[in-house]
């Protein structure tokens, strides 16, 4: 398999939290243990997780997002000028998340972020033969998930500028800590995949085409100063909570922007069921150095997909993008929030091994 990220057999990043870790997080919320006690449990469980990833054949290893409650809020709350607060949860299909959100209360910046320490711990565990992969939310997530204090940012352009600069600082800081594989996670693109999403955009006084370009410009500018030997990918998600989802629809409406307008090294795409549409939008992939990671293996349920059917779908996608530019992964993480999807840890690892085995058979 290839030697640089994204890898032919890869993964999105989050893993099911072990019961010991869940108990420790509950204990600290009840004041039964200290922050140091929790950190010790996290360190030990992350160490075991990294070894499991290596044993499963993965080249990229993450900390499973074990120190987070959410895939996005924890990172964003660590930025200067942003705080978390309790509010309404997000409605998924038949289930609702915990009541939590973020708001901008001051000038946004990046300084002494706690995830720098988290990354250094992971980097040391990865060793020389594996790559430590860091996952953080896309800068776009702040604009649709955060409440903005208009007295701090009366003009959105000033907020966009500060967020971009904060991400530039973050990318450099993580690079200095050793990071060479960074993934931006982004659910905002799913707004363009179905009519109800575009209606929501218009209800906020915006035009979908203009917002698509704003999203692309924000990402491109945020990563514009990344070092040459740092690979940055993006995972485009339609929602992932307790094996449910929020959005549906294919990539058509945003395909030109996503596949020919983003200066990323790779795109992790959900393709595990009919909600994601067909491969036709991949025709807009024009760059020979853009890797497309096909999320053909679902992380939502434990049953393993038929290997030959997955190979057939990879072959179908290769009629739009050369096989050497394609990779394989689960369509999303196994635990975008600490609650996790509805499958067992054994089923989770079977999924990962399935990805690696198929990738080895397809790409060698």
TrEMBL record:
The Gene Ontology biological process annotation of the record reads: methionine biosynthetic process
UniProt cross-references to Gene3D superfamilies, sorted A to Z: 3.20.20.210
> Which intervals of the chain form a coiled coil?
none
Q: Domain (Cobalamin-independent methionine synthase MetE C-terminal/archaeal): give its ranges.
A: 12-360
What's a Gene Ontology MF term here?
Answer: zinc ion binding
Q: Which domain of life is it from?
A: Bacteria
Entries under PANTHER family matching the protein: METHIONINE SYNTHASE (PTHR43844:SF1)
The name on file for this protein is: Methionine synthase II (Cobalamin-independent)
- From which source organism is this entry? Alkalicoccus daliensis
